[in-house]
Amino acid sequence: MDNWSSRPCAPSVTAMTVTALFLADAEPETRGLLEEQLPRDGFQLVGAGVPFDLVLATDGEVLDRFVDRAPVIVLGRLEADVIDRVRAFRRGCDDYVVQPFDYQELVERIRAVLRRSKPRELAVVVAPPVRIDTRTRDVRVAGARVQLAQKEYELLLRLAREPERVFTKAELLREVWDYRVVGRTRTLDSHASRLRRKLRAAGSPVELVDNVWGVGYRLLGVP
User: Fold this and answer.
1) pLDDT (tens digit per residue) in 142-152
2) How far apart are the first and last CA of the chain?
3) 69 and 90 inside one domain
């Protein structure tokens, strides 16, 4: 039985910085699917000797090896019953997905677990020369205040929270605009262009919103 939905997945560009996942004890078919699909959504499967952000465990018995190292999602067997699921949660798993699973649902569950496991976000985000106070929505560039529209603000805040990272267009459209299926749209590019102009007009010493050709956007800071 296939371990994924037959619905086609919308293609996306692989991010230059990805979230590392470790897949424990998976059958070849499941591993092959995830190795093919996950990079398109900003993830990468890595080996046990490499640092990872989350574990996908196909056997609840391996939980004890990983619960103290990273969040764990168990990909349970079809024949697993409520007792198996309860045992997995009691032993520390963060979510339980029964196979065969819908791939897009699995991706959203991975993102949800990662969000819950992140430390609380800072109220003031600083990525020089940008300073954002999320409590008052005050945005300043090199000390000068910048008036931004709602989505321009959300886009800048997302980039500023991880200024070393290159975000794919698909990621930003999902996270800022809540797009679930990414088709042909100029929404992100238009907002990025307006944001870039406003930051430059406020006195930014560099072109802050960098368009990485063929990938997406990142925030450049002052060296």
Assistant:
1) 899 999 999 99
2) 53
3) yes
